[in-house]
Amino acid sequence: METTTLNIAHFNDVYQVSEHKVNGERIDVSKFATLLEGVTSKWSDRGDGRKDGLTVFSGDLFSPSIESSITRGKHMLPIINELNVDIAVAGNHEFDFGYPELQELLAESAFPWLLSNIVDTTTGKTPEPLQEFHVLERSGVRIGLIGLVEQDWIPTIVGWPEHFQYQDMVQVANALSAKLRDPAGEHQCDIIFALTHSRISNDIAFAKNVLALSPAAQASKNIASEHGVDILLGGHDHIYWISKGVTEWEGYDLNTPVEDAKDDQGDVLVVKSGTDFQDLSEITLMLKDTPSGSVRRKVITEIRGKRLSTKGTTPVHAAIKAIYDDEVKYIEESLKEPIGTIEEELDTRMSLIRTQESPVANWVSDCIREAYDEALINKGYTGADATFINAGGMGIVSMLQTMFPYNDSIVVIQVDGKTLWDAAESGLSSWPEWEGRFPAISGFRIEWDSRKEPGNRVLGVWMVEDPDEIGPNGIPFVVDKEPVSRTSDKKYLIVTGEYLANGGDGYTMFKGQPVIITAENGQPANQLVKKYIGGSQFLKRDEQAAESTQVEGGRRVHKARRNVDSTHARKLAPAAYSAVVHNRLGLLDPYQRSRARGHASCCDKGPDCPKCRQYGLVDRKAGARSLLSKESRIAAVSAADEEAQQSLPVIRPFIDGRVKDVSKA
């Protein structure tokens, strides 16, 4: 029977395009681009200008990173488009800025994005502009491409539309197999690839159920006669992992122990290609025709691959470098824009924030405490009880654009009263040294005595009520809800950093505690704070909001109920976080204004220019869509500047005695 060779380049979960250090190597996206081009340049040319191979991306592009906290993911599009990706599946972090923002991002994508097993119940179809499937032809092979995501991460998405319904991965895959392989149908696919965004263990189980079997396993199972998928190209795990069923893989030990892969018996075909532009998989499939009348027209008889890693010595790709430099220009310009009005100086000296309760540490802790409440409620909890982070990592750069110098994901762990006490003791144990472990907290308070020996300094811990009354000094009254017993086994949900949750900075008591929101599903603190401020600004601008209060320490930045459902309103969930994921910020966003400003002065494409429409630089009066004059376009951006300035939230940090040293009372 006839055999065919099919070439694939695969990567997933990429975030940081700027230079970063990995295993002693300084890499960036321009070096990765050279690596990718080195693979695709070997493929033969097609008549349509594309290469006769497939470049596949398996999700998580737009977030999180320091850059995306500023650009809301927009800087990634020119770069990923230039990489000539053929197809992608949406990952969980595609939704970090909300579905409305994702729609806007995908409108500028040069390639299709899949989300096969999510249905918009208002239409009965895949949410637009995402696609249920896509069909491409490469090397004479008709390839059906489907994109599937695990159910586990969907409840962790803040702002996940209520009318988006998850469907079982296996059922959807088999149904699409029947549709795409139908010999009398429109598509008549020879083979089906599943792009997935799920954990390794879930991918292995899925692969077994849809008969994505290795050549060796096919010897005892005639998959040609059954529907399913032929291979999984996955993401989400942030590790490089190849299932044992492949024929050969250069640069990777197939026997590498991975806890989540214990069910891999060499019977399935799954590829995971690392993270953050560090790795690339070069894959060659050997396909053979099946007997006439078979369900699957072709099956995989060999799969050979190679792990390629970006190095510090990898040459820079000139075109990608030019695009990146252009985006950096807009990022740097937007960094000059204020994002809030500070009523008093934010003192971030190490001698202050690492030795005592400080306004800025309180403010950050308050900001991020309720960031995941919607996700926690979706998972059956009532929201986070408290925040526990270390004050030592904080810094204020360019008007709060970067709150933390590290891209540490914020997670949620479950601890008992004893663990919370132990954490408090650990955080206070190094005083008066300027150690980074000094606690920054929200949702509870600590009384301690610095005169006592380390390990015995904490006098009491109390959970506190959400503040409803403001004192004459503008500071909310602290009202105790309940004491936390040092021997209590009562459980509390704590918002903290991934580093601390893994036992870092002396917080060994956190290591091994149940993780409710994982690092893979979390976002960095600087991004959460930016979302918080952006939502506050949106609500302040919105004339229909019930009350345009200012940012005052974070627990309730706004009392509007329009953007929150009854559960959130009852639980005092932050309207700011809800607003920022359910609405487009548009030209309130400094980065978007920076891009619009540059575009307004040079566009000559006329009324059909997609960027002019995106930035609102068209004349919509009386239904017209004619291009505004250059002067009018520039004036429109200037008006947006003024509107943004007028709606800046006021940042008013305070000390309320939540970390009280009784020796200094």
From TrEMBL:
<dbReference type="Pfam" id="PF00149">
    <property type="entry name" value="Metallophos"/>
</dbReference>
<keyword id="KW-0378">Hydrolase</keyword>
<keyword id="KW-0732">Signal</keyword>
<feature type="domain" description="Calcineurin-like phosphoesterase">
    <location>
        <begin position="7"/>
        <end position="240"/>
    </location>
</feature>
<dbReference type="InterPro" id="IPR036907">
    <property type="entry name" value="5'-Nucleotdase_C_sf"/>
</dbReference>
<dbReference type="InterPro" id="IPR006179">
    <property type="entry name" value="5_nucleotidase/apyrase"/>
</dbReference>
<dbReference type="Pfam" id="PF02872">
    <property type="entry name" value="5_nucleotid_C"/>
</dbReference>
<dbReference type="GO" id="GO:0000166">
    <property type="term" value="F:nucleotide binding"/>
</dbReference>
<dbReference type="InterPro" id="IPR008334">
    <property type="entry name" value="5'-Nucleotdase_C"/>
</dbReference>
<dbReference type="InterPro" id="IPR004843">
    <property type="entry name" value="Calcineurin-like_PHP"/>
</dbReference>
<keyword id="KW-0547">Nucleotide-binding</keyword>
<feature type="domain" description="5'-Nucleotidase C-terminal">
    <location>
        <begin position="339"/>
        <end position="511"/>
    </location>
</feature>
<dbReference type="GO" id="GO:0016787">
    <property type="term" value="F:hydrolase activity"/>
</dbReference>
<dbReference type="InterPro" id="IPR029052">
    <property type="entry name" value="Metallo-depent_PP-like"/>
</dbReference>
<comment type="similarity">
    <text>Belongs to the 5'-nucleotidase family.</text>
</comment>
<dbReference type="GO" id="GO:0009166">
    <property type="term" value="P:nucleotide catabolic process"/>
</dbReference>
<protein>
    <recommendedName>
        <fullName>Metallo-dependent phosphatase</fullName>
    </recommendedName>
</protein>
